[in-house]
Design the sequence.
């Protein structure tokens, strides 16, 4: 069996009140993403144990990371740092029992502002951002238009399975 263990770090206290039963929501979204894309991922070969670090943070911390790693001097809603981009990933995959896939960091204030602007719940927006970040960790990207369309399709399918409306609707 292949699975992903998610280690959640709540850096910003506002998260605990914003998304009810956050641990269960994290697991539900993770399972929905894996159920949708596992067959498409080259390294998803049983039996494997993977891990992902999910940091529920704030704008200040994400702003610093966004500037340091992307050169963008403002916070963003979600950052993903995928270990599959590391040149040594294949070697780690062969040698380690537990393979760390990377880190996803979500900024509370940006998420909250976007949810308000879009007229959606914090729960639904968090599910979208977590699914988006996890897809990045698993190798999906949106740099090229065709890749963006594919990633958005995966996101909308995952969210639809969770009863959440398409976040890309006009």
Sequence:
């Amino acid at each position: 069996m292949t699975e992903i263990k998610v280690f959640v770090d709540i850096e910003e206290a506002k998260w605990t009140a914003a998304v009810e039963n956050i641990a269960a929501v994290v697991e539900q979204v993770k399972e929905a993403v894996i159920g949708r894309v596992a067959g498409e991922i080259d390294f998803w070969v049983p039996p494997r144990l993977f891990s992902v670090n999910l940091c529920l943070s704030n704008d200040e911390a994400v702003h610093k990371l966004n500037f340091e790693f992307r050169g963008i001097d403002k916070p963003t809603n979600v950052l993903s740092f995928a270990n599959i981009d590391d040149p040594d990933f294949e070697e780690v995959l062969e040698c380690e029992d537990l393979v760390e896939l990377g880190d996803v960091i979500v900024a509370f204030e940006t998420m909250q502002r976007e949810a308000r602007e879009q007229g959606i719940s914090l729960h639904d927006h968090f599910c979208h951002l977590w699914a988006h970040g996890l897809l990045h960790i698993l190798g999906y990207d949106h740099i090229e238009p065709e890749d963006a369309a594919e990633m958005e399709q995966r996101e909308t399918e995952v969210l639809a399975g969770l009863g959440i409306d398409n976040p890309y609707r006009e």
About this structure: The mean pLDDT is 94.
